[in-house]
Structures are given as C-alpha cells and as structure tokens.
Amino acid sequence: MIKNYITLLQSNDLKATIQRTSILKSIDQAGHISVDEIYEEVKELHPTLSLATIYKNITLMQENNVIVEVPINGQKSKYELKKDDHMHLICQVCGTIQDREIRPEAKEALVVENFQLNSSKINLYGVCQSCQNR
C-alpha cells in the first residue's frame, strides 16, 4: 500500500491537496472503490467537499496516471491506485474485484506483430468462490 500520497501526487505533476490525499487514502484502503463510496468516506472528514470536486479530482488523477478506472459491466466504475499491469476477476453477483498477476505466458499471448503494447487492462467476469458457495 502506498502511504505517502503527497509524494505520489507530486511525482505525477499534481499539487498535493487535502482533497486529493483524502481521495487517495480512500482508494488505497478499499483497493477498488466507486466515486459515490469515495464521496461518502471523504465527506465525513471534509463536509464542505462536493461530489463535483471528487469527480474533477478523479478525472485529473486518472489523466496523470495516479489512479486507474476499473469498468464493471452493469455497475458504476471503480477506481484503484495505478500499479503494475494485472488483471481483475470481477464477481457478477456481489461485485467484488480481485487483482491477479498476469503470468509471463499470458503476456506473450498479448504480443501482436507490428504493435507496441504499452499497457493492458484485462477484466474477467464470473462468480467468486463466496458466491458459488451460497
């Protein structure tokens, strides 16, 4: 987990504001979290903070590669801190997201002739173990 949010923001050419560090802390603690969930957490500490400010900062931090959007079919996107390429296992029943490393042999399958791959986002949808056992 990244604890120094100020350094993270500054190293990505962003001013380290209280709003941004609070948003990053919420994302870091949750792992994957929606804008609405971030807003509910952050407004407890900063009641004057608006939902529009959360959206504005989320967009800015995405553009500066601090956070990444995780789109989820049929639900609002969630956000996570930027980290090495990995895939997401997304439960279609409860909505939980599990990160998984992309194995070297799978990375080889992503190589396309005459194409330079800079990053990848792989979301796999299914049913998690907990929901299978219900």
Beta fraction: 15-25%
CATH fold-level assignment of the largest domain? Arc Repressor Mutant, subunit A
CATH architecture heading of the largest domain: Orthogonal Bundle
* Sheet with the most strands: spatial strand order: 4-3-5
- Averaged pLDDT: 91
Rough outline = globular
Distance between the ends: 31 Å
* CATH superfamily annotation of the largest domain: Winged helix-like DNA-binding domain superfamily/Winged helix DNA-binding domain
Describe the model.
It is a single chain. It is globular, with a radius of gyration of 16 Å. The chain has 2 domains: 5-79, Arc Repressor Mutant, subunit A (Orthogonal Bundle), CATH 1.10.10.10; 84-132, Ferric-uptake regulator, C-terminal dimerisarion domain (Dna Ligase, domain 1), CATH 3.30.1490. The chain is of the alpha+beta class. β1 (67-70) and β2 (78-81) form a beta hairpin. It is built from 6 helices and 5 strands; from the N terminus they run ααααββββαβα. The strands form 2 sheets. Strands 4-3-5 form a 3-stranded mixed sheet, with no helix packed on it. It has a two-stranded antiparallel sheet with strand order 1-2. It has helices spanning 5-11, 18-30, 35-45, 51-63, 104-109, 129-132, and strands at residues 67-70, 78-81, 86-91, 97-101, 122-126. α3 (35-45) crosses α4.
